[in-house]
Amino acid sequence: MWPNRRRRREAWSAPQRPAGSRRGACAEPRRGAGRWRDIPAMAEERGRDEDPGPNPSVLFLHPDLGVGGAERLVLDAALALQARGCSVKVWTAHYDPGHSFADSRELQVRCAGDWLPRSLGWGGRGAAVCAYVRMIFLALYVLFLGDEEFDVVVCDQVSACIPVLKLARRRKKILFYCHFPDLLLTRRDSLLKRLYRAPIDWIEEYTTGMADCILVNSRFTAAIFKETFKSLSHVDPDILYPSLNVTSFDSAVSEKLDDLIPKGKKFLFLSINRYERKKNLTLALEALIKLRGRLTSQDWDKVHLIMAGGYDERVLENVEHYQELKKMVQQSDLAQYVTFLRSFSDKQKISLLCGCTCVLYTPSNEHFGIVPLEAMYMQCPVIAVNSGGPLESIVHGVTGFLCEPDPVHFSEAMEKFIHEPSLKATMGLAGRARVKEKFSSEAFTEQLYQYVAKLLV
């Protein structure tokens, strides 16, 4: 099936590490010197020198193609490989084009298993088991009913499907992208919950180790991976930072925000996160309350906060937390100073990033966080919690502020943008330059392609 094997091996091979060095499931991809060149131009240059053979076909498996950070990364990865010449298809258990990123329509997306339950009853209980069942069914469907031919499988979030993929008649190479260990994303408040989670946690760790290549999204996640999965202590996952599909930002036409922002508002703060309690959205509201006490009434009347976030009526926590936040606003007499925006469009997001003073990013120990990159690329400073991924993306005092996760420190940072309006411009320019330098789509594309290609050598 693969002609010119030797030539293709030479074309795809990456520099080897010295003998005796320990790595994880992936070999290090090639890095070019200086600035990353245009991907099509690089492909054309290689084509003049050698015949690289056919590009690999890649199949992505993802639980739910919604509008979260994990979904953004999966789409960017799929689009990057497609642009690089790979044959790419995406399979998911649920896909609603009206509740997904617009550029998902540029890919071949297929669904199976959406009829399976997302939880086992009231309160979203049993969501982990249901996610495992849905992904296992999806993998079985793809292998035996999907009529798909592919060389590499890229999966994320749920590793339980990996053993199923090993059942393929022609062995598939599997790349697993670990956003964060799932076992750390839930609380164990009772003996029943601990008993329920024990086999799930074991399955996650065991099946993750079955992948041929393991990638993580930050140095922070890599360290957590090593601490959490004790049986995988011999594995050093490679780091592939998420990137931005800047084309969608550069080509988007801004929308007017008159219907979202009351007249006379000069200082617009923006929170972008899903309506989930772990995102600590109350911190943004509490910081706004503290800010009110720090400003004159004249300046306070010019302040407004927009709480924008992913919202899915099928997810009980989204519904409940949205109501909790609205109640908090009413009780704090902030109704005239806060606007809620649920499941906004890409155009609305870009318009908000263009028009706001800064972004408030409130989650603690966030695995990476794509929102700070989006904000910085749009020349919008970020105030974020000083833990997790933002420590690697935001430069404190240069592209924004890293603060303790309490309303006092957040309000102090917010006040600086009110008393020093020039901060937005200077930090905005620095932020855009940082994204272009460290998180470019060209670097992401070439690194990911090399990881995929190395699996087939």
From TrEMBL:
Chain intervals with Basic and acidic residues compositional bias: 28-51
EC number: 2.4.1.132, 2.4.1.257
Protein name, as recorded: Alpha-1,3/1,6-mannosyltransferase ALG2
BP terms from Gene Ontology: dolichol-linked oligosaccharide biosynthetic process
Lineage: Eukaryota, Metazoa, Chordata, Craniata, Vertebrata
Gene Ontology cellular component list: cytoplasmic side of endoplasmic reticulum membrane
Pathway, per record: Protein modification; protein glycosylation
Its job: Mannosylates Man(2)GlcNAc(2)-dolichol diphosphate and Man(1)GlcNAc(2)-dolichol diphosphate to form Man(3)GlcNAc(2)-dolichol diphosphate.
UniProt cross-references to InterPro entries, sorted A to Z: ALG2 (IPR027054), Glyco_trans_1 (IPR001296), Glyco_trans_4-like_N (IPR028098)
Catalytic activity: a beta-D-Man-(1->4)-beta-D-GlcNAc-(1->4)-alpha-D-GlcNAc-diphospho-di-trans,poly-cis-dolichol + GDP-alpha-D-mannose = an alpha-D-Man-(1->6)-beta-D-Man-(1->4)-beta-D-GlcNAc-(1->4)-alpha-D-GlcNAc-diphospho-di-trans,poly-cis-dolichol + GDP + H(+); an alpha-D-Man-(1->3)-beta-D-Man-(1->4)-beta-D-GlcNAc-(1->4)-alpha-D-GlcNAc-diphospho-di-trans,poly-cis-dolichol + GDP-alpha-D-mannose = an alpha-D-Man-(1->3)-[alpha-D-Man-(1->6)]-beta-D-Man-(1->4)-beta-D-GlcNAc-(1->4)-alpha-D-GlcNAc-diphospho-di-trans,poly-cis-dolichol + GDP + H(+); an alpha-D-Man-(1->6)-beta-D-Man-(1->4)-beta-D-GlcNAc-(1->4)-alpha-D-GlcNAc-diphospho-di-trans,poly-cis-dolichol + GDP-alpha-D-mannose = an alpha-D-Man-(1->3)-[alpha-D-Man-(1->6)]-beta-D-Man-(1->4)-beta-D-GlcNAc-(1->4)-alpha-D-GlcNAc-diphospho-di-trans,poly-cis-dolichol + GDP + H(+); a beta-D-Man-(1->4)-beta-D-GlcNAc-(1->4)-alpha-D-GlcNAc-diphospho-di-trans,poly-cis-dolichol + GDP-alpha-D-mannose = an alpha-D-Man-(1->3)-beta-D-Man-(1->4)-beta-D-GlcNAc-(1->4)-alpha-D-GlcNAc-diphospho-di-trans,poly-cis-dolichol + GDP + H(+)
Top-level taxon in the UniProt lineage: Eukaryota
Family: Belongs to the glycosyltransferase group 1 family. Glycosyltransferase 4 subfamily.
Region of interest called Disordered, as start-end residue ranges on this chain: 1-55
Domain (Glycosyl transferase family): residue spans on this chain: 262-433
Signal sequence, renumbered to the chain: none
Membrane topology category: Single-pass membrane protein
Annotated ranges, domain Glycosyltransferase subfamily 4-like N-terminal: 67-229
Source organism: Panthera leo (Lion)
GO molecular function: GDP-Man:Man(1)GlcNAc(2)-PP-Dol alpha-1,3-mannosyltransferase activity; GDP-Man:Man(2)GlcNAc(2)-PP-Dol alpha-1,6-mannosyltransferase activity
UniProt keywords, alphabetically: Endoplasmic reticulum, Glycosyltransferase, Membrane, Transferase, Transmembrane, Transmembrane helix
Location(s), subcellular: Endoplasmic reticulum membrane
